[in-house]
Amino acid sequence: MLIKFYGRDIEQSIELDKPTKLRDALLKCNILPSTIIVSFEDKIIPLSTILSNDIELLVTIVSSGG
C-alpha cells in the first residue's frame, strides 16, 4: 500500500507491505509525530490508527524550534 503525507514543507511517500500504525509510518518517513497533527477528510486521526489501504494524509506542523 502507498501512504502519502503532504502539507506545508512536507511531501513524503512510503510503500508498506503490511498494515502499520500511523506513528510508525511517520517515523519511517522521518516525520516526528510529536510535532504534527495528521488529518484525513478534515478529521484529525490518532497516531494509533492502523493504515491498511492506499491513503493521502494532510500533515500540519504544530510546534517549532526557537
Q: Any overview of this molecule?
A:
By secondary structure, this protein is mostly beta strands. The chain has a single domain (2-61), classed as Ubiquitin-like (UB roll) (Roll), CATH 3.10.20.30. Helix content is 11%, strand content 45%. The protein contains one helix and seven strands, in the order βββαββββ. It has one helix at residues 22-28, and strands at residues 2-7, 10-15, 20-21, 36-40, 43-44, 50-51, 55-61. It has a five-stranded mixed sheet with strand order 2-1-7-4-5, with helices on one face. It has a two-stranded antiparallel ribbon with strand order 3-6. A hairpin with a 2-residue loop joins β1 (2-7) and β2. The longest helix has 7 residues, at 22-28. The model has no long low-confidence stretch (mean pLDDT 94).
List the SSEs and their pairings.
Blueprint: E1 2-7, E2 10-15, E3 20-21, H1 22-28, E4 36-40, E5 43-44, E6 50-51, E7 55-61
Parallel strand pairs: 1-7
Antiparallel strand pairs: 1-2, 3-6, 4-5, 4-7
